[in-house]
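Sample log: HAT C-terminal dimerisation domain-containing protein.
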Amino acid sequence: MEIIGGELGFVGARRRGRCFGHTLNLSAKAILFGHDADAFERRISGVGPLTEAEHLIWRKKGPAGKLHNLVVAIHRSDLLTGMLRNIQQEAFNKSSDPKLNARKPLDVILDNDTRWLSQLYMIRRALLLRDYIERLIAHHRIDFEQQNKAKRGGPKKSLTLPFICQPENQLSDKDWEVVEIFAQILSYYEATIKMLEGDGQIRKRKRGWTGSYGNIWDVIQGFEFLLEQLERFKDIAKDFPDTEHFRININLGWQKLNEYYEILSETPIYYAGLALHPAYRWKWFERNWTDRPEWIDEAKNMVHDVWRFEYREAALPGQEPPAVEPVPKQRKTSDNPFQEYLKRNRYTAPEAGHGGLTPGEDEYLHWITHCESGDGSI
């Protein structure tokens, strides 16, 4: 980027856009696996059955690691998979609820090593199947002990229980509670990354058609939204013992997000995109950074410098013929908490400003001081 900037006449570092998805990946892995998540990922082969050493490595990573081991053991055993299906089917058949009678058994979902989205899908399915998984463990132990009885009728003293039946490999009630909170946290990450990826749909707005492919003005809000959620979960985690790795990991995830949030100022486009958006403008900063006036001043200086040194004297392109309006796709609706956050932070503009741009007036100053009543719907 520095070389390209030198050839084209700009400072490369100030044009560098960072991958928000990569930042979320680092933060989510810290929440799940704590310190040295990348080193942990490199130590796990992900090929073939887990070795005893790999089982131990995962188990040391707390409830998420223990759940991973349990899911791997079930997923890679035809016997356990069949037992889990049969336990579910038996419960469905006994139910008086017609909806349950019609349900089909579900399998566990195996995560893709330390890819956090696959971890989320694994956790969600495991929570859904928790009762059946616990029955599976109990049934499997009974069957195993019956098949390995000593002559006097009891289990053999030298008997080694199957992996999922060993007490140290099972999830306690507190472990399941931690896993459920992990699912809640990662659901906010999922909602944010999906919004910032965009859905590619064409939507009609007051001033024309626009496509949503991930918006630069949503990046700062994405950081604020997730940091706010993690602050809330840090309070929840106070009730958990240190051995759960829970409080520490949430703090690590928060620190990783904040680390990348602080270096956004190296790239002014994130601030310019939000400040120049008609539905947010500087009102967003004044509303959300009330206790950080120095941040607001820094952001205003950055955006003004972008205008002053890069755009104010730029020649306007020639008038292009009007584009043919595309056929809009139906907008998807979903309960996305980040989308709701964005809606809440939109600025309700006052009545339309008076007059247009006067000769000699600075366009940027005119923009930030004049609003239109429809700005909030853009």
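Observation: Confidence is low (pLDDT under 50) at residues 327-331.
Observation: Residues 267 and 344 are 26 Å apart (CA to CA).
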